[in-house]
Amino acid sequence: MNLSIIIPLLNEQDSLEELFTRIDTVCQTNKLSYEVWFIDDGSTDLSWSIIENLKIQHPQIHGIKFSKNYGKSQALHAAFEKVNGDVIITMDADLQDFPEEIPELYEMVKVGNYDIVSGWKKKRFDNVMTKNIPSKLFNSAARKVSGVSLHDFNCGLKAYKKQVVKSIDVYGDMHRYIPVLAANAGFRNITEKPVQHQARPYGTSKFGTERFVRGFLDLVTLWFVSRFGGRPMHFFGAAGTVMFIIGFLSAIWLGLSKLIDVYIFKIYGNLIANNPWFFIALTMMIMGSLLFVAGFLGELIIRTNREHKNYHIEELI
Ligand code: UDP
Ligand code: MG
């Protein structure tokens, strides 16, 4: 099979039939064999029964129905495990992406040999204040953090080589940063293609303002994991050691000056605890040891996880 098309959806009853008809037409015109995976992420409208009806006439349709709304990342994850095509395409269900882009995306992966071709909504039809401007900021932050130079990380329309979706683990809200996950997994042949975009014809956006907070925290996680995920001791151990040494030297200095006061200058009234450095030294030593232990635990956790397959073998002879 040439193509697997993955469509996560939440309450998109009005778009599904038109979306499938357009996909079917464009694939037939271009002689592409394909399957479509609809993932119903806990819809409460008629979406699932529409998918069931479509399935009766079109055996190339598959559906996954979640018992509740788990989020777009989980929907993609479930489909990534199932798909069989050589090239995998993801797209949103709301008709904002154009199915007519599919053949060209397919060619770029198949012939152009890219790991990922990511859509770029160059001319975007969303609210300027709540979507377009924040998304510019996010994209530039993501470029800096990841070193992957894409204009539009979170475009729903993307094409992948099969190995890519089989190797990455989309969790939490990480669907926003799939190209970064892929790059961290060693798939660095990533490019983008300007794609058409239109305003949402039916329904409303499923992501509210909470996406700013989540998007930002996920970016911090990504930065940290890609820098220190494989060697937590290098971060925690280093910070912990520096703090502990500062604390320890301060404590020695405090103790020595107390001894000097008592035995040389015969001053008895100065309590060590009156000196602010006493508290600094104490805190530094406690925090330093805690950081060190955190790094050590991190290393142990990694060691256990390495038992599981966490790599992708490109060739085997
Ligand atoms: N979606 C989903 N689960 C969710 C939220 C969204 O499957 O929890 C789907 C949604 O139905 C759509 C796609 O993800 O097909 C993109 O969502 P939306 O169009 O609301 O995002 P926007 O275009 O506003 O960024
Ligand atoms: Mg949309």
TrEMBL record:
Gene3D superfamilies: Spore Coat Polysaccharide Biosynthesis Protein SpsA, Chain A. It is an enzyme of class 2 (transferase). Keywords: Cell membrane, Glycosyltransferase, Lipopolysaccharide biosynthesis, Membrane, Transferase, Transmembrane, Transmembrane helix. GO terms for molecular function: glycosyltransferase activity. The chain crosses the membrane at residues 235-256, 276-302. InterPro entries: Glyco_trans_2-like, Glycosyltransferase_2, Nucleotide-diphossugar_trans. Its EC number is 2.4.-.-. It holds the Pfam family Glycos_transf_2. Residues 4-167 form the Glycosyltransferase 2-like domain. This is Glycosyltransferase family 2 protein.
